[in-house]
Amino acid sequence: MTDPTDVTNVPRTVLICHADDALNREGLARWLASTTRLVGVVVLGEPAKRMRRRIRREIGRVGLLRFADVFAFRLYYKFFLARRDHAWEQATLEQLTQRFPPLTGQTRIIKAASPNSSEVETFLREVNPDIVIARCKSLLKESVFTIPIRGTFVMHPGICPQYRNAHGCFWALAKQDRENVGMTLLKIDKGIDTGPVYGYYRCKFDETKESHHVIQHKVVFDNLDVLQEKLKEIYAGLAKPIDTRGLPSGEWGQPWLTAYFGYLRRTKK
Length: 269
Prior knowledge:
With 269 residues, this protein is of the alpha/beta class. It has helices at 22-35, 48-62, 64-80, 82-99, 118-127, 142-145, 168-174, 212-221, 224-236, 257-267; strands spanning 12-18, 37-44, 108-112, 131-134, 151-156, 164-165, 183-187, 197-201, 251-252. It has a single domain, classed as Rossmann fold (3-Layer(aba) Sandwich), CATH 3.40.50. The strands form 2 sheets. The chain has a 7-stranded mixed beta sheet, with helices on both faces. Helix 1 packs parallel to helix 4, helix 2 crosses helix 3 (64-80) and helix 7 crosses helix 8.
C-alpha cells in the first residue's frame, strides 16, 4: 500500500460521489485516502428537480412507450433485486472498511446539490487536486473537469466507445457481449464518455446470480490494486491513452424490463 503521507510520489485526489451511495462515499473514499493523498470529497445530495430533469431527458431520448419499459424495470428491480444487491453492497463495504482506515482531518468534505455549482468549483480550486475521480450521474461542465492538473476521470460501467452513456454492463449482457462487460477508466472531455481511454477492467461474474448493478460495482472494486497503479502512472505522466479509433460507438440509456427478461431467458438455456 502506498504511503499517502509521502507527498512526493502520490497524487492529490478528490472524489465526487452521491450522499446515498455508501460504497463510494465511504469505501472508495477510504481506498483513495490509503493509496493517494485524498484532499477532498464532494458529497452530492441532489434535489428532486434533478431527477425530474433526467426523466424528461430519457423520455425525449426513447419516447413514452419505451420509457414505460424503463419504469417497469425500476419497479421490478425494487421489488425483486434491490434487497439482495443491498446485502452485497453492505458486505463489500464491510470488507473495504476492514481493509482501509477511516478518513482523517486531512480530507476536506463538502456537501453540494450539483458538481457544477460555484461552491464546488471554488472548492476544487482551493484544494488543487492532481486527479478528480467523478463517481456521479451528472455531466461535469468544462470549467469544473479541467481544474485538476492531470484531469478528471470516470470509472465508467461499460467498455467504451461501444457502451457509452448509462448502464454499459447491462447492455453488454443484454446483447450477449460478455467480452465487453467491464469498466473503462477514461478522462472526461466535452462529450458523453468520449474522452481518452486509460484502461479496461473486467472481473469474474455470474449473470444468472448477480445483477448488472452488482457486476458494474465488481468491475471497479475487484480491480482496486491495478487501478492504484494506473493512477500513479497518470500522475507521473507515463500513462498513454488506448487507441480506440475505428471501434464501434454506441450511446445507451436506462435498462428495459423487456431486455432484462430477454437476456435472462438466453442465459438459462
